[in-house]
Amino acid sequence: MTKAEINRTRILEDPIGKTLMRLAVPMIFGILSMVVYNLADTFFVGRLGNEQLAALSFTFPVVMFVGSIALGIGMGTSAVVSRAVGKQDYKAVHRLVFDSLLLGLVVVGILVAVGLSTIRPLFTLLGAEGLILDYIVEYMQTWYIGMVFVVVPMVGNNIIRATGDSKTPGMVMVLGAATNFTLDPLLIYGIGPFPELGIQGAALATVIGRSLTFFIALFVLIFREKLLKLTIPRLSELWASWKRILYIAVPNALTKMIVPLGAGFITRVISSYGPEAVAGYGIATRVEFFALASLNALSSVMGPFIGQNLGAGKTERVGESFTVSRHFSLAVGGGVFILLLLLADRVAGFFNTDPAIISVAALYMRVVSVAYAAQGFYMVASAGLNVMNRPLHAASLSLIEMFVLSVPLALLGSRLFGTVGVFSALSVSYLTTGILAYLVVRRVLAQARS
Fold first, then answer.
1. N or C end: fewer C-beta atoms under 10 angstroms in the chain?
2. Which DSSP string do the residues of 258-274 spell out, in sequence order?
3. Under a CB-based contact definition with an 8 Å cutoff, are residues 67 and 107 in contact?
4. 314: Cβ–Cβ under 8 A, 6 or more apart, which residues?
5. Neighbours of 384 (CB within 10 A)
6. What is the per-residue pLDDT across 346-358, written as a single tens digit (0 to 9) for each?
7. Rounded (10°) angle between helices 50-86 and 3-13
8. Least confident window among 85-94, 137-146, 316-325
9. pTM beyond 0.85, yes or no
10. What whole-number distance in Å separates Cα of residue 272 and Cα of residue 357?
């Protein structure tokens, strides 16, 4: 019996709460390790100079855009593969694994060709010029060439997760982040035998770290799980697979792009209160990421759990998993709220000593954290709806949260009550979206049972 078959048995038969926690814990470390990528590059490049740091900042939207596409394909693949695993249709699994990785390579080819030919005009359009633009070219030329190591591992790790194995993807993510963190100073500053590459070294360190995850993912899929078989598909088979994957991938990718866009709007509103307010908001959002890490991890494993149980026809376990997740969200969200209510000033003070910055960060933590339980369940519900073949429902929830609630209410709240109004708007949007997610999930489950 392969590891995938053992995991399938446990997902379909073990107690639901225990199973979800077993799957989620490794992903907490994997998700947090992704922060290391950004923090390491920002820290080490920042020591080169303001121009290099500004150049790196300019690249973030493009990197996030590509990441959104890769994550969308990965989530689409995870949804269809997990259902096939649940049905024990391993012929379909093998077909979907090969076709999804091929789709990733095709997307990479298009993005690399377009990206390399548009670096200067694109970033000039974004406002970069002079020396900063030259640094951007240095960074992005290396990053684009190594893009295959960014996109394909995201697809591969989602496939592995779809089999019920979250430990391997979590470990791979941590290993990639550790490699990047280690190589950054060596390649940027030219320590020891390494060449001094400056900002290009940061891109190369990222590519090498990602390439490690690329080869590990391929090794697991080919040799351990024996899920990747190099059988050339007929065009009709390939298109059938791609349609199933893209039906979930496209709304997901667009949804992921909504988040940074909406955050940019909120930042613009906050900026009217001065740089201290922006700094405090930045600190608070980073704390929020850590505070929601366990709920984010839970959402990342809900797809494989629900997919396999749906494939096996165990609809009742799907409904129970949402109940367990709702209770977990309430417990974690409530606990975080109490802690931040009491310790927000100390937590903010850990990052900065400016009283004005601490005041804004602490205010955010106290006001917005009251809705973390609802936000956690929304994340879980969104992942579940995707694998239940309701990607438009999930995308609609994201659109509602950001552009129907957060941005308009933040503008109104800012005009009426200042920063308190902005943060209260975010809290209201989290709470409302969480309630809507609960109602949508309840309706979808009722339809699935009928």
1. C
2. HHHHHHHHHHHHHHTT-
3. no
4. 12
5. 28
6. 998 887 788 988 9
7. 80
8. 85-94
9. no
10. 14
Q: What is the pLDDT of residue 444?
A: 93
Helix, strand or coil, per DSSP, at residue 300:
helix
Q: pLDDT tens digits for 65-110?
A: 888 888 888 888 988 998 888 888 888 888 988 999 999 899 889 9
Distance of CA 62 to the CA centre of its chain: 15
Nearest to 307 by CA among 71, 18, 7: 7
Closest to 136 measured CA to CA, from 51, 211, 39, 47: 51
What is residue 373's predicted lDDT score, i.e. its pLDDT?
96
Q: Which pair of tokens denotes residue 106?
A: 């095709």
Span of 149-153, 197-201, 419-423 with lowest mean pLDDT: 149-153
Per the structure block, which two tokens stand in for 37? 């990528």
Alpha helices in 167-234 (DSSP H): 167-189, 199-219
DSSP per residue over 38-78, as a string? Answer: HHHHHHHHHTT-HHHHHHHHHHHHHHHHHHHHHHHHHHHHH
Q: How far apart are CA 193 and CA 189, in angstroms?
A: 11
What is the full DSSP assignment across 336-403?
A: HHHHHHHHHHHHHHHH---HHHHHHHHHHHHHHGGGHHHHHHHHHHHHHHHHTT-HHHHHHHHHIIII
Residue appearing with tokens 């593969």: 81
CA distance linking residue 437 with residue 225, whole number of Å: 35
